[in-house]
Amino acid sequence: MSITTSFIEEKERASAQDIMKRGYAHPEFLVSTEWVAIHLTDPSVRIVESNEDPLLYAFGHIPGAVEIDWTKDLNDPLRRDYLDSSAFSSLLRRKGIRRDTTVVFYGDKNNWWAAYAFWIFQLFGHTKARIMDGARLKWSQEGRSMTRKESVYAETNYEAPARDDTRIRAFRDEVLQHANAQLPLVDVRSPEEYRGERLHMPEYPNEGALRGGHIPGARGIPWGRAVNSSDGTFKETRELREIYIEEHQLKPSDDVIVYCRIGERSSHTWFVLTYLLGFEHVRNYDGSWTEWGNLVNVPIQKGASPY
Fold this sequence. Notes:
Layout: H1 3-20, E1 30-31, H2 33-38, E2 45-49, H3 56-59, E3 66-67, H4 85-94, E4 102-106, H5 112-123, E5 129-132, H6 135-141, H7 172-180, E6 185-187, H8 191-195, E7 219-220, H9 237-247, E8 255-259, H10 264-276, E9 281-285, H11 288-292
Parallel strand pairs: 1-5, 2-3, 2-4, 4-5, 6-7, 6-8, 8-9
Helix pairs in contact: 5-10
């Protein structure tokens, strides 16, 4: 073994240990910026950038990363739904991704959209997927290389199974039944949205629904409480348990539904509960408030209390 190889392996072990020592239930689904830097040219790894801001990728991205745009790439062009198995297969073929490729997601907004893309990949059973801890923010803070060169790879023969909407996705009728049964719901939006004072986050246009408030019984736990604001990394298990388990009385065995406005922020919380805290049954209601706040004759609660 060469000195260079040994040094790289040592750096990789150190970066993995940093994540392991945080005590996550499934630390293998999270990788560090250092791990990504080591694997930039690894043919078994594909780095995927997914952002809210569609201009960021062109402005600069991790060398070798491909872009998956949540609007044009992951959504059905007509119906409000995600792409089907055939379209998903075509997308991944164009991005040079195989069934055995380890896909690492990162993006802006502390990985909102990266978590959203990760969650959609799980609907199609691509379990060899990871999130880069710290997102674009940490990569940039560390002064790591960026490029404007678009990454192009040879097309693959990717074949996805049928999309499975039963395990980790919730629809409005299921959410209504869940709420009526007083089972755990988590609203991950801002406190202003939760209380019904706004229909969107404070810094965004106040639009998207006819009514404000939250689903009765939902706990208000803003998604951002799970991350360190200084560098976008996830908080340690101890801190996450204090928020979700001790403060809000959720249990890892609970049947939990999370939601936000369109499903991206709640995908982030879904990832935290499922992979970092080891909750056994968490579903993301991607219809979220833009659906619920426009529905006729569904219950809505206003104010700071769940009921």
